[in-house]
Write a structure and sequence with these properties.
Helices cover 28% and strands 18% of the residues. It is of the alpha+beta class.
Length: 182
């Protein structure tokens, strides 16, 4: 499980949201936070203990990490988190077969780590903006028949929360990835 590391003045911190940990425990998992330390050997060691990984949400990745210029609305996460996440993603997709769930920023990491691009700011995506801090909007997503998610939920669609201003660029998604929810 990935941790949330954000700049906090002159100090950086690693933290995990209670709702992530609680959801994993309720699903029968044992959350094991991975600290924001970009050390390949350490990350490989963590991966050797895991049955799956959740790449969590957070602030934006610095656009330089995926070869783009910064948009004025981009609010980068801590450099330590960005470096660790990109290293972890590279190891996940080149050396492991672990199932991966990307939530918000984690979803974007899956896309850019596999060579895709991001739309750094979605100015007219009101349905994806928080109602107020701590209260996200909700909307339905359609699940691909036969997909793992479809089988997990046994449903054609599910309600999800949404609070982000960035998204994967649909014209620049890796052929190695397959969309299973829209």
């Amino acid at each position: 499980m990935d941790v949330h590391a954000e700049a906090d003045g002159a100090l950086d911190r690693s933290q995990i949201r209670f709702d992530y940990a609680r959801a994993l425990v309720e699903a029968g998992g044992l959350p094991l936070p991975i600290p924001a330390v970009a050390d390949e050997a350490l990350l490989r060691h963590y991966l050797s203990f895991l049955d799956g990984i959740v790449l969590s949400g957070g602030a934006d990745y610095p656009p330089k990490m995926y070869g783009a210029e910064s948009h004025p609305e981009t609010r980068p996460c801590a450099e330590a988190r960005a470096q660790t996440d990109f290293m972890l993603a590279r190891l996940l997709f080149s050396e492991s077969r672990l199932p991966v769930l990307g939530i918000c920023l984690g979803h974007q990491l899956i896309g850019v780590a596999n060579g895709g691009g991001l739309i750094q700011h979605l100015p007219r995506a009101e349905q994806h903006k928080s109602v107020k801090p701590g209260l996200d909007r909700e909307h339905r997503v359609r699940l691909a028949p036969g997909s793992f998610l479809h089988g997990l939920f046994n449903a054609e669609s599910i309600r999800v929360n949404s609070a982000h201003h960035q998204g994967l660029d649909p014209s620049d998604v890796s052929d190695d990835l397959e969309a299973v929810a829209w």
